[in-house]
Amino acid sequence: MTDLEAHVSQKGRKELVKQVRAKINELGIQYIYYQFVSVTGRIVGKGVPADHWESIAERGFQLVYGSTANLFVDRFKNYIGYGPEASELVGIPDPETFCQLPWDKRVARVFCTCFRNREERVNPGGHLTSDCRGNLRILHEEFKKKHKGLHMRHGCEPEMMWLKKGADGLPDGGFSKPNCYHIDQFESLRPVFMRAIEYSRAMGLDMIQGDHEDAPGQLELNFMFDDCLRTADRLTTYRQICAQVAREFNLIACFMAKPFMGVSANGCHHNISLWKGGEDKVNKLGLDNLPGMEENFAYLKGGENTFLPLKGQSKPGPIGLNCIGGIIKHVGALTAIGSSTVNSYRRLWDTGFWAPVYADWGYQNRTCALRISAPGRFEYRSVDSTVNPYLMAAGILQAFDDGITHKIDPGEPEERNIYAAMAAGKKVKKLPMSLGLALEELEKDEVIKKAMPDEMYKVFTHYKRDEWEKFNATVTNWDLQQYWDYLP
């Protein structure tokens, strides 16, 4: 049996497919987006009339392999990852992710897992290793088996900016003033964020805290933490929601890491913990009024948080400390995933805005790459809002595995401002300060490279090295302003 056949025939799936058909009929769904996620976190796929649900659920749809790399060409006009002669992947929908779109209730979306074509000579119907979402599921299951049921749960803080749209369709400044936590600036965006919250709740996100951050039009709207695959799916969904809300208000929903210098960037801190046990509980918050299937609104509840401090101590327990040690050891390579664009490094170079530059950890210490943000979890700060959350979660799992397996000691937490500690003589490793340097760190790190098996690593590095080379081969406004009258 191929991987594709095993996925389609897994226990309970046929019943879920039937439940989706009942929901399609009940809600009057006419069209379905079958979607997966590319190397950069972009949402790609196909749309199909809902009449064909059963056949697509069993047979899938086909799309060129290169769609996992946005069907993008490098600076030499070669397709990234796969040439035009490559086969077509098979996308198989995961029925538990079926959900109606609240802004057009005739349409639904479902996430898909990608497989190699059935007619391939090598590994026909095998898992497509350039499918970042499918990889995360596989890697997390392997992690659970190796570590006796330990599983990762995390939440993220997706900062983004609502920008005004100029007559040319390009950004024309932030909608509000850069006043952090200012309720009046938050209020100025109330119609926008309330629409985003309404749509998010309708699509199964348990929305919690939100605020105005300290950049123009910058909001952070958070949702409840969960299993790492669900959290990645929900961040992807949240981005789609923001894009739709922007269309409705003629704004730009900007997830670019650093649109403006001199104000804070768009970070996407990950708050992470490892758990044993727990079970899915349906989110009862307004469930009767929510469209879609109950499975969309389930959350992992209960279990034992292994990051909690031992009795009478403030440090995380042994597992948490080893995981911190793993992150510190591999933070250079992880930076290539968490700060994945050329622009990401503007965030690290613009000093004074708490972006992490040094590989250390501490309690509530925002000058470090990791901080203990609350008992039972730590915040990984070296990640911005352009992140592909599936790759990031997979990379973190690999660092955790190394830390636990080899009992890596992260050292004592740094309670001083890291710059004061360094002035006093502390030696601290600095994060790579450009995409090029981060990719060099990734190339040397065999542990983190396992988070991107086989074709995924080839696609990622081809795409990102080309991005770095294109930047280096471009004359910018800075070049002109700096050098146009350089001589005589």
TrEMBL record:
PROSITE patterns for this protein: GS_CATALYTIC
GO MF entry, a single one: glutamine synthetase activity
InterPro entries documented for this protein: Gln_synt_N_sf, Gln_synth/guanido_kin_cat_dom, Gln_synth_cat_dom
Keywords, ordered alphabetically: Ligase
Pfam families, alphabetized: Gln-synt_C
Domain annotation GS catalytic: ranges: 132-488
GO terms (BP aspect): glutamine biosynthetic process
Cofactor: Mg(2+)
SUPFAM superfamilies: Glutamine synthetase, N-terminal domain (SSF54368), Glutamine synthetase/guanido kinase (SSF55931)
Keyword Transcription regulation appears in the UniProt entry: no
Homology family: Belongs to the glutamine synthetase family.
Protein name: Glutamine synthetase
Species, as recorded: Hypericibacter terrae
